[in-house]
């Protein structure tokens, strides 16, 4: 459910806990990751500006789109970044990530180009993305600049971890993300990943580091690989408009909540609906189970109430020997198919009873060899 | 010690003196092994006494759940409570911060678990024909639990450990995030372990090493798989010749499958933790007590030093529950009672013959 994810990001981190982190993962078969990212971004921004969230500001680290794109996007959603109390800052890692323009100018190869009319108040060009610690420092600096000091927190949105992984090793990217998560002033963080651009390990690393993982999958898998097939073409077309949205949320108590939704891409944006068909989400995790040989408290009390044979002798009452043929008081005890083994007791107005079924009724009574003769129940 | 030493084989080590009193933190076991407690009494019972001195315990984490932290916390707290020095390494920048989350032993001792040891039932009731001719002779077993309580404490996860246990002489912390290779950690471990050499005399003190998330991705060495493997191997050999136990947790999903297998072979005792899905109807129908469970613990391998006889456990999967959200208990998985009217449940649960998860957890 997209709402629960946005709510989790809005609520942020508890004291002494790492900030919630969301990974949005997609692939070529269902390429809506960026739409989802924008959706989450706009939701979180509106929460922040309305003052409903734990974080007081948002730093957008943009690698794959120019900052003006985000300004446009937020403006379309009704959020005017420039005048919004400077709650949203965009760290521009898109225009000149490796600092080439400066180096070219230095080398004197061409005259300085006129800068784009960028909103210098909201965008800040980062020229050295190879060093993750510098990136970390810039993000933290921007964030602190947004919210001031003290107990306030800010959120971080990373456009695309793919670009980060291009420039730096996986362990330094992982270090950056985990340091951001454990920073006292970061409230929540989310990022986008295109899983087919990397080895499986990178996706595994990012899933390890995040507390919520959403993945996008196509609704219909094409039957076989032939792309040219008409049926497959229409399926692929279908897949470009709709998809399945899976969410795995790691809860604080250690359980994992698994949810699924359908996602539709329309002109106006993205919408989430519940799945039309029930998908089987079970993991097939069936461990070796045993039968319970323990007794619960109630069962133990019942067992203690049973008067065993020969125990009641010597009470002054006449001793009756049971020969197994007279039926005892009706038992309300149903024979259950389950193999929970209990001593055969019956809860019967405070006292326990023993239910004894004689082996066979055919034998003549009072035969010499009858071992049950002195049964006393 | 109250534990009865049963002779399981005709070869038994000649122990010259009666078991030397080593204090509450150590317990003698068969074949000359000495155990220390894992901090979880259920786990000690499952493993046959605890972690043997000189063994390497490895815990495979689940990326989706923090249960390995519960094991780590109990392990570390138990060591501190028994005055066993601790070396703790973690990928956090400030590992000392984690010490503040260590649990404290539970105060009241009437928080006993509901499970009785069936052999020690008090007042065994016997229906005996000639009982009426004799007087009542009560056979009361005195619970021999007092000795056990000292060896393994119940930890209250909501109460932090008192400050005086965390003094610098007892706890040494190392951060492994920024070190480019493992030589620093190896040196620290070597100096730590050299303080507890093993010789045939009595054991004065035992040490514990706890390494959290050894192959965590933010560590600079995390893609140097051969180096990590050789570190584990050298740690294992150092631990073997000293009176210490090393506990390493690692996320197997981040390792390549062949290395994952190699690491599993390195361990003397191998455990793994697993997350469980929330509100899963199938599991709640299959298992009793599903609501209280937070995860599963699998015991893949139990350390057997000094003996060739393997341990074959009745069950290898246990559920992790937090009683009253405070006390960690491990329970066997029990099948929920089946409704007699529907006869189909045995069909669907037919897959319960295999062990829990496939892939790199199969051993």
UniProtKB/TrEMBL annotation, chain A:
Pfam family, any one: Elong_Iki1
Highest taxon in the source lineage: Eukaryota
Principal location class: cytoplasm
Gene3D superfamilies according to UniProt: P-loop containing nucleotide triphosphate hydrolases
Pathway participation: tRNA modification; 5-methoxycarbonylmethyl-2-thiouridine-tRNA biosynthesis
UniProt-annotated location(s): Cytoplasm; Nucleus
One BP term from GO: tRNA wobble uridine modification
Keywords in alphabetical order: Cytoplasm, Nucleus, tRNA processing
Comp. bias regions, Acidic residues: 360-377
Organism: Theobroma cacao
Protein name according to UniProt: Elongator complex protein 5
Transmembrane segments: none
Positions of the UniProt region annotated as Disordered: 335-377
Classification via CDD domains: Elp5
Record family assignment: Belongs to the ELP5 family.
GO cellular-component term (any): nucleus
InterPro entries according to UniProt: Elp5, P-loop_NTPase
Cleavable signal peptide: none
TrEMBL record, chain B:
Keyword flag Cytoplasm: yes
GO terms of biological process kind: tRNA wobble uridine modification
Compositionally biased region (Polar residues): 1-15
Stretches for region Disordered: 1-24, 100-120, 340-363
Any one annotated GO CC term: nucleus
Alphabetical UniProt keywords: Cytoplasm, Nucleus, tRNA processing
Pfam families xref list: PAXNEB (PF05625)
Record-given protein name: Elongator complex protein 4
């Amino acid at each position: 459910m997209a709402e629960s994810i946005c709510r989790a990001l809005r609520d942020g981190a508890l004291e002494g806990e790492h900030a919630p982190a969301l990974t949005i993962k997609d692939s070529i078969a269902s390429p809506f990751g960026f739409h989802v990212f924008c959706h989450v971004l706009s939701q979180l921004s509106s929460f922040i500006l309305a003052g409903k969230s734990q974080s007081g500001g948002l730093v957008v680290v943009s690698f794959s789109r120019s900052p003006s794109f985000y300004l446009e996007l937020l403006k379309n959603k009704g959020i005017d970044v420039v005048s919004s109390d400077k709650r949203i800052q965009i760290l521009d890692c898109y225009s000149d990530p490796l600092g080439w323009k400066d180096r070219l100018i230095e080398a004197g190869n061409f005259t300085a180009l006129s800068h784009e009319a960028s909103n210098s108040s909201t965008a800040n060009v980062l020229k050295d993305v190879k060093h993750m610690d510098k990136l970390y420092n810039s993000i933290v600096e921007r964030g602190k600049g947004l919210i001031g000091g003290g107990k306030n927190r800010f959120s971080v949105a990373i456009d695309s971890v793919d670009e980060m992984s291009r420039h730096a090793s996986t362990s330094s990217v992982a270090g950056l993300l985990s340091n951001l998560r454990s920073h006292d002033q970061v409230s929540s963080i989310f990022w986008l990943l295109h899983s087919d651009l990397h080895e499986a390990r990178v996706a595994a690393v990012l899933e390890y580091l995040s507390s919520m993982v959403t993945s996008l999958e196509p609704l219909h898998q094409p039957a076989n690989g032939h792309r040219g097939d008409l049926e497959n073409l229409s399926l692929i077309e279908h897949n470009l408009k709709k998809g399945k949205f899976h969410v795995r949320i790691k809860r604080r108590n250690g359980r994992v909540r698994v949810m699924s939704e359908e996602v539709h891409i329309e002109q106006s944006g993205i919408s989430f609906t519940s799945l039309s068909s029930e998908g089987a989400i079970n993991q097939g995790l069936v461990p070796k189970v045993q039968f319970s040989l323990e007794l619960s408290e109630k069962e133990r009390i019942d067992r203690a109430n049973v008067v065993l044979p020969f125990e009641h002798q010597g009470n002054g009452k006449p001793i009756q020997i049971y020969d197994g043929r007279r039926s005892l008081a009706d038992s309300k005890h149903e024979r259950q198919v389950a193999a929970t083994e209990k001593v055969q007791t019956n809860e019967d107005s405070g006292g326990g009873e023993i239910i004894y079924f004689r082996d066979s009724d055919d034998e003549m009574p009072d035969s010499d060899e009858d071992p049950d003769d002195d049964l006393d129940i | 010690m109250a534990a009865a030493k049963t002779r399981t084989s005709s070869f038994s080590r000649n122990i010259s003196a009666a078991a030397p009193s080593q204090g509450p933190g150590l317990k003698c076991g068969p074949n000359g092994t000495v155990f220390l407690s894992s901090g979880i009494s259920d786990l000690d019972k499952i493993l046959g006494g605890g972690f043997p001195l000189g063994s390497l315990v490895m815990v495979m984490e689940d990326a989706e759940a923090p249960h390995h932290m519960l094991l780590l916390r109990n392990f570390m707290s138990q060591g501190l409570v028994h005055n066993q020095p601790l070396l703790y390494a973690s990928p956090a920048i400030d590992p000392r911060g984690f010490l503040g989350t260590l649990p404290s032993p539970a105060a009241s001792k009437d928080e006993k678990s509901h499970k009785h040891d069936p052999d020690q039932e008090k007042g065994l009731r016997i229906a005996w024909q000639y009982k009426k001719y004799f007087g009542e002779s009560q056979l009361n077993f005195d619970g021999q639990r007092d000795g056990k309580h000292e060896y393994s404490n119940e930890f209250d996860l909501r109460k932090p450990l008192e400050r005086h246990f965390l003094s610098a002489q007892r706890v040494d912390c190392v951060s492994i995030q920024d070190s480019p290779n493992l030589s620093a950690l190896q040196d620290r471990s070597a100096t730590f372990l050299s303080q507890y050499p093993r010789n045939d005399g009595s054991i004065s003190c035992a040490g514990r090493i706890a390494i959290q998330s050894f192959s965590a991705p933010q560590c600079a060495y995390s893609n140097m798989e051969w180096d990590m493997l050789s570190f584990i191997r050298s740690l294992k050999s150092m631990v073997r010749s000293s009176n210490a136990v090393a506990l390493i947790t690692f996320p197997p999903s981040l390792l390549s499958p062949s290395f994952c297998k190699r690491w599993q072979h390195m361990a003397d005792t191998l455990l793994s933790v697993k997350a469980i899905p929330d509100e899963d109807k199938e599991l709640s129908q299959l298992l009793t007590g599903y609501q209280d469970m937070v995860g599963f613990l699998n015991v893949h391998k139990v350390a057997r030093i000094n003996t060739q006889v393997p341990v074959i456990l009745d069950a290898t999967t246990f559920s992790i529950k937090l009683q009253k959200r405070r006390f960690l208990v491990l329970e066997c998985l029990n099948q929920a009672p089946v409704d007699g009217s529907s006869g189909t449940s045995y069909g669907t649960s037919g897959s319960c013959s295999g062990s829990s998860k496939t892939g790199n957890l199969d051993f």
